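Attaching the record inline, Q. Sequence:
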Amino acid sequence: MKLSSSMNLILAAVLAVSTPLMAQTPEERGLEISQEAKQRDLGWGDMQADMLMVLRNKQGQESVREIRLKSLEQENDGDKSLSIFDKPRDVKGTAFLSFSHPVGADDQWLYLPALKRVKRIASRNKSGPFMGSEFAFEDLSSFEIEKYSYKYIQDEACEAGQCFVVEQYPVDKNSGYTRRVVWLDHDEYRISKVEFYDRKNSLLKTLTFQGYQQYLGKYWRADLQQMTNHQNGKSTDLKWTGYKFQSGLNDSDFNKNTLKRSR
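Structure, as predicted:
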């Protein structure tokens, strides 16, 4: 049936009115992109890896630490992770345990062998540096949707081709950041870059991800993470090797009472 010209005008007017109502807001789009990124990384179970932490001062002098890391995915909660320092001698035996939570403060403990005691990291200190690195304690938590509110900014060219650019605003009042700007590639929703803005909304740090490898045919992990502090001129590299997934870790491997025995 052929529509009359008057009917065509009415239909066009209806579409013109309804289309903006159906369009996503930047906040809805930012949340949707972040949810998709999270969804694509669910189901890996448990993971182990070796890591070199390279600390670099403003003059370019380096110190290297060898670390073993274990992580355990939790249903209906954030991940658990355990980091154990093996070298050099002055930090050997130091262990860091983190229980991430979608809502509320994360639980974090640091075992210092020189003091032979476990120190709980207070939520108000989460913005402090982790073991002298440019990573803060809060940077070591798993990404949980509820920890932020969101805003889509734009699509932009990036090393991976095209990236979504999304601003994330921490919900926790104890966060050291007013916002994070995150670049995620269109194809796999992998993080390419994160900019961190301090409490004065000045650019503090930039974190980049390189050398992504795929595991179990689904999960992407970067071989190199580089954190650069623009305000003090220091940087920290995390170089990852030996990823192993689904090796049978369980909750008993992430108990704060066993931190002292982590070797």
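Confidence is low (pLDDT under 50) at residues 14-21. The first strand starts at residue 46 and ends at 56.

More tomorrow.
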